[in-house]
Amino acid sequence: MKTPFKSIRTEITVVIVITGILIGVGVGLFIYRVTINKAVDSARSRIETAMAFVRASRSYVRKTLRPKIYELLSAGCTNQDFILEAQSSSFFTASIFGMVNREIPDMELRQVAINPLNPRDVPNETEMWVIAYLKSKNLKEYEGITLHRGKEYFIKAFAVIPRKGCLRCHGKVEDMPLAVRQIYKPKKDLNWPVGKVNGAVLVYVPFDKVMAQARIDGLTNGGLVGGVFILMSGIILVILNFRVFKPIDALRSRAERISKGEVEEPIPYQSENEIGRLARAIERMRVSLKKVMDMIG
Ligand code: HEC
Predict the structure, then answer these.
(1) Given the CA of residue 161, which atom of ligand 1 is nearest to it?
(2) What gap in Å lies between CA 261 and CA 254, rounded to an integer?
(3) Pair 240, 16: CB distance under 8 Å
(4) Angle at which helices 8-60 and 89-103 pack, to 10 degrees?
(5) Residue with CA at minimum distance from ligand 1 atom 25
(6) Do 29 and 172 share a structural domain?
(7) Does the beta carbon of 171 sit less than 6 angstroms from any atom of ligand 1?
(8) Whole-prediction pTM value?
(9) CATH of the domain at 251
(10) Both 158 and 252 in a single domain?
């Protein structure tokens, strides 16, 4: 095999260093991925719990509170047409979101939409992107690690796909209950598209600490494994140096001297290994050469 190296020592060193770096980088990337995946798994299960509460509170409003209040309203107990606080699952969810955000500060819930009722729910750049993504791929959910306000977050988003009934409050201004108009004072019709993604319910879990930890873990573990590999290979190289390269060098210089006619001094050999056998072969050559030279005189 032809190699660009003039010395086996250099060749082995280069191979060891490159292999060590590759192993280090491989292990580092693996640990990095594992750390992130572990954090994603735990974030996912926490988000699932939070979303279960959100869904439960929505359906409680829809199935229990809203019909009950309609009953009371139609009985004429107040002159209002709609009690937002008790009948709108969106309003209810928004309130619950606010409380959850205070209870669990390392998790943020947001519901956003294009043409929202509450100006606070205008999607930011990241959220616009998520909505567009859900729309273009026709997906119900999205999850990923994204930069948001200069920090890394794990985001899980659920598509908001308006139904016809939603247009009562998210359609034309004139259709909206008085209470909604009074509170939000919408200046124009919202006209949410029925059946198409128009918003998202998002859960943000801060991930900058996780990412930093993953980077540190990846770097230290990768460096450690790569370093240990290079160290062990280095020890093997030192052993090879004393047991193989140096003896071969010595034999080479003896062979050179023999070739120049210095045939008197015997070559000592102790071991039975490959080098010992090579030494013995050269020694036999020296003896033969000496005999020939003695004969010639
Ligand atoms: C009876 C009125 C009403 C109906 C019907 C209604 N919502 Fe809402 N929705 C609201 C109100 C009020 C808010 C604003 C809550 C707040 O202050 O954050 C809101 C807010 C939202 C938001 C946040 C964006 C925004 O507009 O501020 C989403 C998303 C949303 N609703 C989805 C829906 C969906 C989907 C439906 C149909 C399944 C629906 N809503 C039906 C009253 C309604």
Answers:
(1) 35
(2) 11
(3) no
(4) 130
(5) 116
(6) yes
(7) no
(8) 0.74
(9) 1.10.287.130
(10) no
